[in-house]
Amino acid sequence: MKVKISVLSFLLMSSALLAQQLITPKQAVALALENNYGIKVANNQVEVAKNNASVLNSGYLPTLVGNAGASVNISNTEAEFSNGNVTVLNSAESSRYNASLDLSYTIFDGLGRSYNYKQLKESQQLTELEARETIENTILQLFTVYYSVAESKENAKTITETLEISKERLIRAEYQFDYGQSTKLEVLNAEVDINNDSISLMNAKQQLKNFKRDLNLVLGNVIIDDFEVDTEVVLETLLNKSDLWEKAIAYNTNLLQIDKNIEINKLISKSEKSVFLPVVGLTGSYGWNKNNNNEASFLLVSKNTGLTGGLNLRWNLFDGGNTITRVKNAKVNLETQQLQKEEFLLSLERDFNNAWDDYQNKKNIYNLQQDNIKTFKNNFSRTKEKFKLGQLNSIEFRQAQVNLLNAEIIRNQAKYSAKLAELQLLKISGEILNINF
Question: How far apart are CA 435 and CA 426, in angstroms?
Fold first, then answer.
């Protein structure tokens, strides 16, 4: 009966584990792009930039204003006419009513409007680049946490296996003590090691829970139930340094933003110079007016409707030197940005070389750790056989066990560190959004 219950419990536990959702790297990226709040905010900023770059915000369209008004006047009036007649009116009422549609349009403003509109278009593209940078940073953050979950998961599994070996050792020590083949010290040492392994496992599981919460936060907290991640990692072996550097020069997001800011400042400089030219405008109006006068007026009622139109020219010949100062400052700002670009290129080259060397180094370390695992496993297997034969004491066995555990934990760390170094390299090269996760 106990066996049946144990089997049933095992099957229920297995079903629960299988029911846990597996979040693959590709699914994680899709969830982040859809639900991450930082990305949502960046997308909204792009929408605002698109609205600003619309023709409705360009100044190219005319303005049309409707006006209407009414006034009533009540006064005491004494009027003397040329024929000598005198008219006295008490509380005489007069009223006026008017309505009009007024049109205003700038025909020419020294090309300032054109440069401003182009500037808005460039600003829209700059905002899109800033949104792209936000997405790249979020993807890198996502995988930093994703692989932390994967590493913690593998560490917990390794510690669990170590704990099982320690439990087997305790059972063996108890049997040996019962039959007088060992001392109580062996049992006590085994119990201490079990407790230490249990504590390590508890910490590993807690760390795993914390990293899962961090990952879910990056994903916008859309995962309700517990989930698993894919621990398989494939390191890219076909990366070419010179090709990646050319892509960095062409597609690095920060460099593209600097270039876009330079283009915007060129347009600002041209826009400032446009103030030196005159502004020509067109005005038009269609109006209706009605006056109701009191009896003392020559006309009792008057009405008029009609169109009016005209051209106006405004030329700011000299504004005290403000425009000249702005033009000079715009030129200096443009030169400053050119210098900042040159400085950034030096930093970019340094960061790229550092990222390349870091990736190669961590990849080599991972490969060496893979070889080390084989050696440590082989060593532990032999140590385990000698321990069973009584040729080694528990301290030597425990040391071999701890060595294998540490080697596997270091290997896990090396694996995910190498993958993150690869992603950092691809981000600098502007390629992180083009890889197939």
Answer: 9
